[in-house]
Amino acid sequence: MNSEAPPALSLVSVSSLLGCGLQLVVAALLTHRYGGRSSKTDWWILLWLFYDVIVHLTLEGPFVYMSLVGTVETSEGPLAELWKEYGKADSRWLVSDPKHVSLEILTVVLDSLLALLLIHAVLNDKYYRHFLQITLSVCELYGGWMTFCPDWLLGSPHLDTSNPLYLWVYLVFFNGLWVLIPVLLLVQSWLCLQSLHAVKGDRTTAQKKKKL
Q1: Vertex 175, ends 171 and 182: CA angle to 5°?
Q2: pLDDT, tens only, 153-200
Q3: CB of 135 within 8 A of CB of 114?
Q4: DSSP state of 212
Q5: How far apart are CA 169 and CA 105, in angstroms?
Q6: Vertex 183: Cα angle to 177 and 184 (nearest 5)
Q7: What local confidence, expressed as pLDDT, does residue 197 receive?
Q8: CA–CA separation, 45 vs 31, rounded Å?
Q9: Please, is 210 exposed, middle or buried when counting C-beta atoms within 10 Å of its C-beta (0-12, 13-18, 19+)?
Q10: Residues 39 and 46: beta-carbon distance below 8 Å
């Protein structure tokens, strides 16, 4: 019995992947420009934050606009074609699903603002840096959970996992980035706050000894 071979990479899929690569290059250039004096860890965090903002504003922002004035499926232009390509993996993005659009409005507005503020906090070593880092990471994780969990509970009727490109690149890799990296940022914040608490404890102990 012959099984149907998965479709080869199309021009749209290649162009979409190249566009995502270009976004990463722009993020790297911005990180090099503004984060040159940062620690190695903070340099990588800034790279992610710049990339995060770029994706929210240049990809998800247009998706929100297209969904508010119509649908991705009925829209035209390069960004519409990119979202139509992603819609082959998750058809909810084609039809202005209210839950998706609501989450994306929050993502474009709130997450972008938090990421920009966090970039400022990292570059200037602000006291509220880890408050923002934890808040942004939780928001990103919540967005990912609410994007996929409702469909999983229905048996994933809108997800096409038959094509390796759709499954492993569009669904797993790109969405997985917004799970893995926020988790790593939460761990980094935990360790930094733990270290600060330990330093504070040592100072308190030293002051008590001096009084004695």
Answers
A1: 160
A2: 999 999 999 999 999 999 999 999 999 999 999 999 999 999 988 876
A3: yes
A4: -
A5: 24
A6: 90
A7: 84
A8: 9
A9: exposed
A10: no
Q: What does the alpha-carbon distance between residue 28 and residue 39 come to, in Å, rounded to a whole number?
A: 15
Residue 81, classified by CB atoms within 10 Å of its CB into exposed (0-12), middle (13-18) or buried (19+), is middle
Strand, helix or coil at 90? strand
Q: Which residues contact 185 (CB under 8 A, 6 or more apart)?
A: 45, 48, 133, 134, 136, 137
Task: Give the residue from 73, 76, 98, 101 showing the smallest Cα distance to 86.
Answer: 73
In the prediction, which pLDDT does 2 show?
A: 44
Quote the pLDDT of residue 202: 60
Per the DSSP assignment, residues forming a β-bridge with 90 are 159
Alpha helices in 98-171 (DSSP H): 98-106, 112-123, 129-153, 164
What are the distances in angstroms from CA 205 to CA 47, 72, 196? 39, 61, 14
Tell me the CB-side half-sphere exposure of residue 160, using CA atoms within 13 A.
16
For the chain, which residues score pLDDT lower than 50? 1-3, 5
Phi, psi of 161, deg, nearest 5: -105, 10
CB 176 within 8 A of CB 170: no
Q: How many helices (H) and strands (E) in the chain?
A: 9, 0
Q: Are 160 and 146 in contact (CB under 8 A)?
A: no
CB count within 10 Å of CB 183 equals 13
CB 137, CB 183: distance < 8 Å = yes
